[in-house]
Specification:
single chain; about 170 residues; alpha/beta; 5-stranded parallel sheet; 8 helices; 5 strands; globular
Length: about 170
């Protein structure tokens, strides 16, 4: 097994993909996103999977995608916002260099607009985002080796903070 160099976790819109791409470029490794893996394998968007097949089916796909990526990908890996809900996934992350990209609700509003394309935020998005985060924050903290706040920071600043926190150097 070749574990990822960095695993990024955090809520939707926290910048996992953008920061992940920057980190991969700076470290000279490949970037992989489990949400993108699912979209590619299913041939449809995650929101469509939620609507057509339900959250449970999506979580099954996500669990398999994460397990596969953790086993195969030696570069920078971003997990979907809810991947840490699965106990087995949290166990697989034990001991890995996991960075939790955190942000507050106001930052989430600025970044994702909390729009209907996010299936878990379709009704009263601010309240739902807060409720999601109340449930997920302890899980993100449980799996994270480091926590990096993204509020009012550029993706470049966040990437540098992740490298510093994990004590990694550019390639």
């Amino acid at each position: 097994m070749s574990a990822p160099l960095i695993v990024l976790v955090g809520p939707m819109g926290s910048g996992k993909s953008t920061v992940g791409e920057l980190l991969a470029g700076r470290l000279g490794v490949a970037f992989r996103d489990t949400d993108a893996d699912i979209v590619a394998a299913e041939g449809r968007e995650i929101s469509d999977i939620f609507v057509e097949d339900g959250e449970d089916h999506f979580r099954d796909l996500e669990r398999a995608a994460v397990r596969s990526a953790l086993a195969e990908h030696p570069g920078v890996l971003a997990l979907g916002g809810g991947a840490i809900l699965d106990e087995g996934t949290r166990e697989l992350l034990t001991g890995l260099p996991v960075a939790y990209l955190s942000m507050d609700v106001e930052e989430a509003v600025k970044r994702v607009g909390l729009n209907a394309a996010r299936p878990l935020l379709a009704v009263n998005p601010r309240r739902q985002w807060r409720e999601l985060m109340d449930a997920r924050r302890p899980l993100y903290n449980e799996v994270a080796r480091v926590v990096v706040a993204t509020d009012d920071r550029t993706p470049e600043e966040v990437a540098q903070a992740v490298l510093d926190a994990l004590e990694l150097k550019d390639a």
